[in-house]
TrEMBL record:
Its EC number is 1.17.99.6. HAMAP family: QueG. Binds 2 [4Fe-4S] clusters per monomer. TRNA binds at K232. Its cofactor is [4Fe-4S] cluster; cob(II)alamin. It comes from Oleispira antarctica RB-8. The gene is queG. This is Epoxyqueuosine reductase. [4Fe-4S] cluster 2 binds at C207, C223, C250, C253. Belongs to the QueG family. It holds the Pfam family Fer4_16. It comes from the Bacteria.
Length: 355
């Protein structure tokens, strides 16, 4: 398709249309920003140098591409950042965390895999822009080396909180981010330069494993989301008690954030919790064989962790649960045929109930 020459007025009109189209496609907010991320690049390098990324080698790969969008897609001039809320209507976060017999799964992972849902919408938005002016685009949904929170902050979608999450004054932090890279010199949106966290340190104080080493600095190696999703080997013994009943991800540093009183529940049916993930007991999930795990996690981000790590995580949670004959028997029953990884965590869990 032939590219259309655009005046500044045309570009402003297009930017306005993009935001309207985005809302029509189900995004709650669209922002447009430049590609300069110098300050964030420096902070990323410092974070990597301290080893806070743990085994996430992909965070250190691709040289400076993560902070330089034009290296990822030559010719990129602007990034269109999109926000989509995901909080289920009946989140029941506190109740599930308090009942140690239940399995706690991060709220973002209860429905359909967000990558698939958002990529489809974002691609539609890109095609609408292409049809309007003939320029290409490239869509990203947590699928390429992009500093999405920094870009979203620059695009006016919020500020980077002390828990490293992007926080929006009108929507809290329970939302997904995604990006369209474009060579269109669109007018940019102004960021909110003020950090609205103030003196609050609730997110840092509440972390069950003390993963925050400072404001906006997370040691991922201690983060429960890292431990239950990214880490492929044994979970460090000294961090297991702090995991409680969290078997996939953790929402604590969002749950305590005062700004999340403004969070909106999602209207996307694809993000509706899938039974039995929203209210399952640890014993129910520990009893799954691999085929059952694959069946119930089809099209769901939980599948990413893999069956062995799933059992590993639940074994730790069972070790943290109130002692009962049912739990002890379930752990012992699984033990003979368990992999070395899972066996280690089952033995740890049994030891917790033997004291």
């Amino acid at each position: 398709m032939t590219q259309t020459a655009l005046s500044q007025s045309d570009l402003q009109d297009l930017a306005d249309k993009i935001k309207v189209w985005g809302r029509e496609l189900g995004f709650q907010q669209i922002g447009i920003t430049h590609i300069e991320l110098g300050e964030h690049e420096t902070r990323l390098k410092e974070w990597l140098a301290k080893g806070y990324h743990g085994s996430m080698e992909y965070m250190a790969a691709h040289d400076n591409m993560r902070s330089r969008p034009a290296d990822l897609l030559p010719g990129t001039l602007r990034v269109i950042s999109a926000r989509m809320d995901y909080l289920p209507a009946d989140a029941r976060i506190k109740e599930q965390l308090q009942d140690k017999s239940l399995a706690y799964i991060s709220r973002y992972a209860l429905g359909r895999d967000y990558h698939k849902v958002i990529r489809k919408r974002l691609t539609q938005l890109g095609k609408m822009i292409e049809e309007e002016v003939g320029h290409g685009y490239r869509a990203f949904v947590d699928s390429a080396p992009v500093l999405e929170r920094a870009l979203a902050s620059n695009a006016g979608l919020g500020w980077l909180g002390k828990n490293t999450m992007l926080i929006n004054k009108k929507a809290g932090s329970y939302f997904f981010l995604s990006e369209l890279l474009t060579d269109l010199p669109l007018p940019i949106d102004q960021p909110d330069d003020k950090n609205h966290c103030g003196s609050c340190t609730s997110c840092i104080d509440i972390c069950p494993t003390q993963a925050f080493v400072g404001e906006q600095v997370l040691d991922a190696r201690r983060c429960i989301s890292y431990l239950t999703i990214e880490l492929k080997g044994p979970i460090p013994t000294d961090l297991r008690k702090g995991m409680g009943n969290r078997i996939f991800g953790c929402d604590d540093c969002q749950l305590c954030c005062p700004w999340n009183r403004f969070s909106k529940t999602t209207q996307e049916t694809d993000f509706t919790p899938r039974h039995p993930l929203d209210n399952a007991t640890l014993l129910e999930l520990f009893a799954w064989d691999e085929s059952t795990f694959l069946k119930h996690t089809e099209g769901n981000p939980i599948r990413r962790t893999g069956y062995q790590n799933w059992l590993r995580n639940i074994a730790v949670a069972l070790g943290n649960a109130p002692a009962s004959i049912e739990i002890t028997e379930a752990l012992k029953q699984r033990l003979p045929e368990a992999s070395d990884l899972v066996k280690e965590h089952i033995e740890w869990a049994l030891a917790q109930h033997a004291t």
